[in-house]
Automatic annotation (TrEMBL):
Residues 44-58, 165-175, 341-350 have a biased composition (Acidic residues). GO terms for cellular component: nucleus. Residues 1-34 have a biased composition (Polar residues). Transmembrane segments: none annotated. Coiled coil: none annotated. Residues 176-191 have a biased composition (Basic and acidic residues). This is Nucleosome assembly protein. Residues 1-59, 153-193, 331-350 are annotated as: Disordered. Belongs to the nucleosome assembly protein (NAP) family.
Length: 408
């Protein structure tokens, strides 16, 4: 797996390790107190005292309760705790010189470990390239069946039926699919024998993938109906100057929107692996789609009438503005330059928004690479939805448990 690039502004502190003396593992303000100190209690106030306007004794009030009632004070305290994270308390510096030398030596051992991690990831990438060559004939076969150039063999049909029998909760899978019912011969339920291949295969598969389906508009569907194939290729050293990465290829049939027959998107990895040992995305390069006149699905025309206050005459103003579309996938956001990050005028909110957009873009590329291309038929039938729902349910359970811990 790969991880996305995270936008971080240059750190002002030096590279020193945090220590238990000054880095709380949980920065929740005063959420845990030592058991032997006891827990402060609010003294009970009698009903009569309250009516007489007696002042409340706040000497025993829980500080966490006070902070919870004062958001500004809570934010200030939280910010102070955040400033402590990553700062040195002087613990490392206070160790004897011989111990600090050993610590430097351990860092050197870690450097060698990181080099082997890089070799490991490059070896995995080479293995992926090797096995892609084995998958290619299967993808060719899939394309031929989808486009109606060939019919599946009896052996392929029987193997497909057996895989359905071996799957659990088959009825639940069929309920989640967004395709028309097919009879055993693979023909439409109405009995139309003139249909070739599998119509709207990739449109259906993409609409059954939740994150991608959210990007598909009604206008996009007309083009995606003629999407014939989606393939993966890896970058060669000659074309990418040795930088690793992969490219996704979208092959289209004739349509009324653009003249291109293939749209591509390229993802580049950073040359060095990340801290966790995985490749880190560096950037993505899209494709300049050759839209036909007034057919750009990523833009829309807003028509407004403007009235002249002096003459009373009106005029029609046409303005082209960006709009939501699946084809914005081919215009990926670009990471900020180092100069932008170092600028004092940089907007933190804009950086966070850009970081979120980059994360989404990298994740979609990973979904095409790891899920949609290898298991397109499972997304077409809806079978993949059951496994994704199970995965989401597990994540939700973990999320609920975390919430309970926070409440405590």
């Amino acid at each position: 797996m790969s991880q996305s690039q995270q936008i971080n502004r240059p750190a002002s502190s030096t590279d020193v390790a945090p220590t238990p003396q000054n880095t709380p593992l949980d920065t929740t303000v005063l959420s845990n107190r030592p058991a032997n100190l006891g827990r402060p209690q609010v003294e009970d106030i009698g009903e009569n005292e309250e009516e007489d306007g007696a002042e409340e004794d706040v000497s025993g009030v829980n500080p966490a309760s006070l902070l919870a009632k004062n958001p500004a004070l809570l934010a200030l305290a939280q910010a102070k705790f955040d400033e402590l994270i990553g700062r040195s308390s002087g613990y490392i510096e206070s160790l004897p010189a011989s111990v600090r030398r050993r610590i430097d030596g351990l860092k050197g051992v870690q450097v060698e470990h990181s080099k082997i991690e890089s070799e490991f990831q490059l070896a995995i990438l080479d293995l992926e390239k090797k096995f892609l060559e084995k998958y290619t004939p299967l993808y060719d076969r899939r394309l031929a069946i989808i486009t109606g150039k060939v019919e599946p063999t009896d052996e392929e049909v029987e193997a497909g039926k057996k895989s359905d029998e071996d799957s659990e909760d088959e009825d639940e899978e069929e309920e989640g699919a967004k395709i028309e019912n097919l009879d055993e011969d693979g023909k439409k339920a109405e009995g139309d024998e003139n249909v070739q291949g599998v119509p709207e295969f990739w449109l259906t598969a993409l609409k059954n993938h939740v994150p991608i389906s959210e990007t598909i508009t009604d206008r996009d569907e007309e083009v995606l109906k003629v999407l014939l194939d989606v393939r993966l290729s890896y970058l060669s050293d000659e074309k990418s100057n040795g930088q690793p990465g992969f490219k996704i290829h979208f092959t289209f049939g004739p349509n009324d929107f653009f003249s291109d027959t293939e749209l591509t998107k390229t993802y580049y990895y950073q040359e060095k692996v990340g801290y966790g040992g995985d490749f880190v995305y560096d950037k993505a390069i899209g494709y300049d789609i050759k839209w036909k006149e007034d057919k750009d699905l990523t833009k829309k025309v807003e028509i407004k009438k403007q009235r002249n206050k002096s003459t009373g005459r009106t005029r029609v103003v046409r303005k082209v503005v960006p709009t939501d579309s699946f084809f914005n996938f081919f215009k990926p956001p670009q990471p900020p330059t180092p100069e932008t990050l170092e600028s004092e005028d940089v907007d933190e909110d804009e950086l966070e928004e850009l970081d979120a957009r980059l994360e989404t873009d990298y994740q979609l590329g990973e979904e095409f690479k790891e899920k949609i291309i290898p298991r397109a038929i499972d997304y077409f039938t809806g079978k993949a939805l059951r496994y994704e729902e199970d995965y989401e349910d597990e994540d939700l359970e973990e999320f609920d448990e975390d919430d309970e811990d926070d409440d405590e």
